[in-house]
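# step 3/5: fold
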Amino acid sequence: MTVSTEVTGKVAAEAAGKYTVGAVMCPYRLVLEHVTSRWGVLVLIELLDRPYRFSELRRAIGTVSEKMLTQTLQTLERDGLVHRDAKPVIPPRVDYSLTDLGREAAEQVRGLALWAEARMGEVEKAREMYDAAKGRG
């Protein structure tokens, strides 16, 4: 067993004893909520490519409000997934990038997004069949 495998195994074992999937107050649920939120997913996926300035990131994501993007970035920063780099220049410049932990989470989220994209045809068929059976549309 290598050192990294031992560390990974130890962390997993500690987490397994500490956090329970069904526990309502389990802290990992909150992190999961942050990572999989509507804007959290999009921020993480965008930041996989490169660091962004706030306005660039907002344009890349699209319809997100300034307030919502600010809140999402602050939440992800607090969770240790996003790094905020404020440069002392005029005008002020702030860059956002992923931490190592954030990159790991973003890769997982991107995998789910790619799956959804690849399976969208099947989802649309299922929706049509459901709606037809329910007498909708």
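# step 4/5: annotate
The chain is about 70% helix and 10% strand.
# step 5/5: archive (pending)
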